[in-house]
Amino acid sequence: MTDDIITACTMDCPDACSMIVTRHPDGGVRLRGNPDHPFTAGFICRKIRHHLRRRQSPDRITRPLLRRGNGWQAISWDEALDRCAKSINALRHEPASILHIMSDGAKGVLKQTTKLFFARLGATRTRGSLCDAAGFIACIHDFGSRKNNTIEDLMNAGRIVNWGKDFSRSSIHMSAIIRNARKCGAKVLSISPGGDGNEAFSDVFIRIRPGSDRFLAAAVAKRFIDADLIPEAILLRIRNFPRFSKTLSTFSEDRLLERCDVTSRDVDALFRFYTSNGPTATIIGAGVQRYRRGGENVRFINSLALLSGNMGRKGGGSYFHLHSLGNFNLEWTRDPEGKSRRAFPMAVVGREILAADPPIRMIWVNGVNIVNQGPDSREIIRAFASVPFKVVVDAFMNDTAERADLILPAALMLEQEDVIGSFLHDYVQHVPAVLKPPGEARSDYEIISGLGKRLLPPIFLPSAETCFEQALDSPLIHGDWTTLRSKGTLRAQKPDIAYTGMIFDHPDGKARLPANLHDEPDPPDAFPLRFLTLVRRNAIHSQLLPEDQEMPPRVWISPHCPNLKTLDMEKPVDVVSPLGRLRVSLHLLSGLHPGAVVYRRGDWMKVGGGANQLVAAELTDIGGGAAFYDQYVRLENGI
């Protein structure tokens, strides 16, 4: 007899799709979208569909593995956890010598217990993020918080300006809303370096030099100011407009357009979108903030939503990532003793490990393939090699697991219970476990709870049910753990329109504008092309099976790329940065900016990929984010 169970996707994706898992008597499993979910509405992406094959892969690690010389030995969970406890106990007098590295390889409330565990230890943590830290802080600087109109409110927009979101690869439910909005008469203008499939979703497309979004936004803002188009009512809701206006007065429009490589007609089109009757919504993709001036890019884009009167307005607003756990109560995840803890920026974690004083003696990694996903992968490898004991919780022998001394097999999506939110919509969902983990794989919660009991003195974590109850004890959620478990989903109680009346969340209720507009250095002569390591359609980050990784990796350039005339297309081609070189398969892509090289990120170094070994570890201007796309490279024929 088959049975159907409703659960939800916990991958690092905005949509948090509700899905139905059908279990067959022969052990077969089928996944499909849940048609009764009020937002995700019955369809799921191919990343979820590929998850079943990944989950059942013969390459999965299903027993604890201890490094023995150049090989691995399967050991029992008791021995594995005893070894971890022995190492931690020996370092309890100096807990800063233990480093915890964690990210969002899987989402969920219960995943936060690992943070709680290491907070109670007083271990060194990471700060910032590899994803959206600069944009997050930019919105806080501008508006005092990170809030959006509901995603459904896009249907009320007359026009939508998309700054860099790839609707063809990211967030199928936002893409569906965009398609429906266009059917209802909304016009869409997209801005990006091109080559991303957005032209099919757009009425107007502006191709821009990578990383220069702030100059285009500044050119439009300058037109607002020069034409005296900003009503006094809006100016009264801004704290520092005179400083902003003075900054822009030092730039001519021609200079701004030269920096972003667009024409005055492009500025005309964008200006019309923000000045026409009816509301204009602004969507900001994460890519625009993955440059050294990424926070400034986002802040100047936000300024257009503000100056045009579209903040606090139905059908308007500025959309960036929400906090996926923002609707929950997370006070319980913080150390009650409030220990002061050392923190390394995630984007430069390799450098920080190598320079640490006191030195790092133990690393615990969960929820992230940091060697592959962090910039300057080889520096991270050198850093790991300097640390006596490294524990990696993962399901596959990826680039980070390869550097461990002990690998603990992780349960994956569908194999563990949790509660999740979304960084796109306001629904929270129960995620029941519907399949048994293979072999001896365990959830992060099971692993860290078992370890805590072995310590001297022990660290006891709250029960899973207590964690769920405390997380749901939030003023935004009208329903408790019993209600959520019964209904499967609850909607957080938040206003449909953020910042109604242009009342913002700074103490004075006013918005802020960026005070400075920093110029962009010219690319080095030896490395003229921006290296854009963009999202894939079929997988989240590095969650790929080895057999799905095409080698050599593909890269794309414009047919008008100036580097092209120096290449013999019949010979091997390498991407070269100051950090090294990588053999690639070169392809031409019309519509891409001539100054860009596109690489679809996530493939592993161990199979011949790994773009981040070419990317320097640099921080964004604010937030402690990773400036991945600031890297310049060249293409040349290899030997």
Automatic annotation (TrEMBL):
Tagged with keyword Iron: yes
Organism domain of life: Bacteria
Protein keywords: Iron, Iron-sulfur, Metal-binding
GO molecular function: iron-sulfur cluster binding; metal ion binding; oxidoreductase activity
Statement: the UniProt record of this protein carries the keyword Metal-binding: yes
Protein name (Swiss-Prot/TrEMBL): Molybdopterin oxidoreductase
Classification via SUPFAM superfamilies: ADC-like, Formate dehydrogenase/DMSO reductase, domains 1-3
Domain 4Fe-4S Mo/W bis-MGD-type residue range list: 2-59
SMART domains listed in its UniProt record: Molybdop_Fe4S4
